[in-house]
Design a protein that fits this description.
Strand content: under 5%
Number of strands: 0
Number of helices: 4
Radius of gyration: 13 Å
Structural class: mainly alpha
Order of helices and strands: HHHH
């Protein structure tokens, strides 16, 4: 399984939460993003190194009708010494 930071997991969880609320499957969101049908599934499963970048999040916000701010916490996460 790929190493993932707290902020990366937070963003993945927020995208999943909104995706499910808006009744989008992983495949449907991937296709609407213009990417491989498996992209969102790969990001959410953590079995691949696939992650969302800012362009992805901007497109997801456009598709799901929210602000990009939705995907980020109010306060930054503390960076652990071993993850620098």
């Amino acid at each position: 399984m790929a190493e993932i930071s707290k902020i990366e997991q937070y963003v993945i969880d927020k995208v999943r939460e909104l995706r499910l609320e808006k009744k989008f499957s992983q495949t449907k969101l991937s296709v609407h993003m213009g990417l491989s049908e498996k992209f969102v599934g790969n990001v959410e499963s953590l079995k691949t190194p696939d992650k969302y970048n800012l362009n992805h999040l901007n497109k997801i916000a456009e598709i799901l009708g929210c602000s990009m701010k939705y995907f980020f916490p109010e306060s930054p996460f503390k960076i652990e010494e071993n993850s620098k």
